Prior knowledge:
The complex is a heterodimer. By secondary structure, chain A is mostly helical. Chain A contains 11 helices and 2 strands. Chain A folds into 2 domains: 1-130 and 237-267, no CATH class; 150-233, no CATH class. In chain A, helix 2 runs antiparallel to helix 6 (103-129), helix 2 (22-38) runs parallel beside helix 11 (243-265) and helix 4 (63-72) packs across helix 6. Chain B is of the alpha/beta class. Chain B has helices at residues 46-53, 78-84, 101-111, 116-129, 146-158, 176-193, 204-208, 228-232, 235-240, 247-257, 269-282; strands at residues 3-12, 20-30, 35-40, 61-66, 69-70, 85-88, 164-168, 196-201, 213-218, 221-226. A 6-stranded mixed beta sheet of chain B has the order 6-7-8-3-9-10, sandwiched between helices. In chain B, strands 2-1-4-5 form a 4-stranded antiparallel beta sheet, covered by helices on one side. In chain B, helix 3 packs parallel to helix 5 (146-158). Classes of the chains: A mainly alpha, B alpha/beta.
Amino acid sequence: MLKDITLGQYYPGTSIIHRLDPRVKLVGTLVFIISLFAFGSISAYIVATAVLVIVIRISEVPPKFMLKGLRAIFVLMLITALFNLFLTPGTVLVRFWKLTITQEGLRMAIHMAFRLSYLIIGSSVMTLTTTPNQLTDGLETGLRGLKKIHFPVHEVAMMMSIALRFIPILMDETDKIIRAQEARGADFDSGGIIKKAKALVPLLVPLFVAAFRRANDLAMAMEARGYHGGEGRTKMKPLVYKTRDYVSYLLFVLYLIVMFLTRKYIKIDFPL
Amino acid sequence: MPIRIEHLSYIYGEGTSFEKKALDDISLEIGDGEFIGLIGHTGSGKSTLIQHLNGLNKASSGRILVDGEDIRSEGYSLKKLRGKVGLVFQYPEYQLFEAEVLKDVCFGPHNQGLSDEEVLARAKEALAAVGLDESYYEKSPFDLSGGQKRRVAIAGILAMKPKVLVLDEPTAGMDPKGRDEILALLKELHESQNITVILVSHSMEDVAGCVSRIIVLDEGKILYDDAPSGVFRHARELEKVGLAAPQMTYVMQALLKDGWDVNADASTVPQARDEILRVLNKG
Ligand SMILES: Nc1ncnc2c1ncn2[C@@H]1O[C@H](COP(=O)(O)OP(=O)(O)OP(=O)(O)O)[C@@H](O)[C@H]1O
Ligand SMILES: [Mg+2]
C-alpha cells in the first residue's frame, strides 16, 4: 500500500519535462488544477485529457506510474463520490430504501471523480519528473517575495526537503525492522485491534530510535559544514529561466484561453 | 534439518523501473551441523539470499525445501520455520526495543508460545551462552556498546533454539578483539550445541579460521562453493570480484613460489606458523 503512493517518487529521465524549471512545473500544475475546478464540463475534461496525454507522452514516464497514484486514493475517491451521489439535494432520479440519487448528486459525483483523479495524475506528472530537491528549490525561489512579510521561506523549504528526503529512508528502515522482528516470530497482522497495537511496539521503538539518531547525525553534519540558515546563502545551481520555460508559460496561457473559448462556444455538458 | 535451495532467483521491484535482479539461479544444499561462510562483496546478494531461508523474502522463481518440505507450500507455518532458522540481522539496532536486556531476549521465545518459566529459562541460557552475565539483565539495550548490543541480538535469536543460525555480518564495524570474541563464540556454539551456522561476511580473514565450507557470491550468482583451501586457491579470481584471500594464503603462496616446500592451504596465522616451522625443522 505505502509503495503505491507515487507522490514524491521521482522517475529518472531526460525528457524536456524533466528539464523544465521546477517553478514552471509548479505553476503549470496549479493552473491545471484550478482549471479543473473552474471549468467543469465534458468539453473542459476533453481538453484537459488531451493536454494530460500529450504531457505524459513527452515526459516519457510510463503511464502506469501515473495511474499508481490513483490506486492509492481510490477508496477516498469512492467515498467522496458516494457522499456526493447520495447526499446532494435536488431532483430525485432514483429512490430505493432510504437512499435517493438526485440529478445534481449524480453530476457532482461524476465531477468529483474527474477532478480528483486528474488532480492526482496532474501532480504525479510533476513529482515524477522533478526531484524533491528541485521542487523545494522551485518553491523557495518562487516564494522569495514572501520574505518581505517575514515569512521564513528558506526555513520552510529546508524543512520540506529534509522531510521529503527522509521519507524513503524511513520506509526502508521500517521494512528492515519489520523483517528483523518477524525473524523473531513477531506477528503484525493477526489478532484484535489491541493486540495489533501492542504488536507495533517492537516496530515503533527501533524506528523512533533510528529517526532520532539520523536527525542528530544530520544536525551535526549541517553544523559541521557551517550551515547558518538562509541569510547570505548562495546556490550551487541557481534557477534561471530558459527559452523552453518561457514557451511553457505561454502554453499555459494558451491552455487557459482554449478552456475559456470552449466554455464560451462549444460547451458540451452532461446530458442531465 | 537439511536445507535445499533449487534454482532460486529474486528480483527487487519487479515490474517497476527500479527492477534489480539480486539473485540469479542459486542452487545449494546445506547439511546438518555445517559451518558455512557466505562471502561476497557489497551488493552481491548475501542478505537477500539468507532472508529467503526463513521465508522473509519470497522467491521470484525457484523453491526452498527445509526438511524436504517446500516452505512456500500451502499450510506451511512460516512462524514455526522462523523458530527453526534463526536469523540475526546486520544491525542489532533493528531488533532491540525493550527497556531491559532480559526482556528483549524473551521476545522471541515468547512469540513461540512457550510458558513464562520456559521463556525466562531460555533467555537466561542464551545470555549466558553469549557471555553476558546477570549484571546485564536489567540494563537498557540502548546503553550498551556496539559489541554488547550484537551479543544481545544474537542471544535474542539463540533463545528461540534454532537448528540453523544465520548471522548477517555479525562482525561489521567491530574492533579486532570484539570480532575475535564473536567468532570464537560462534565456533563454541557450533561445537557445543551442534547447530548449523551460516556466517555472512565480506572478509575471508574472518571466516578462514572457523568455517568448513565457503560459498562465494558474485552479482547474485554462486562463484565458488568449496572447502576454504579450495576457494583460497583462486586468489586472483577473488580479487577480480572485489574480494581477497586471507593474507596468510598470499604469504604461503609466495613461499611456495620461492621454492619452499610448504602447504599453501594454511590460511590462518597459527596454521602458517606451524607449517613454516615444520618446513624449517625438516631442513
Ligand atoms: N529493498 C531493496 N530494494 C531494491 N533493491 C534492493 C533492496 N535491497 C537490496 N537491493 C539490491 O539487491 C542487491 C543485493 O543486495 P543485498 O543487500 O542482498 O547485498 P549484500 O550482499 O547483503 O550487500 P552488503 O554486503 O552491502 O550487505 C543490491 O544490488 C541492492 O542494491
Ligand atoms: Mg547485506
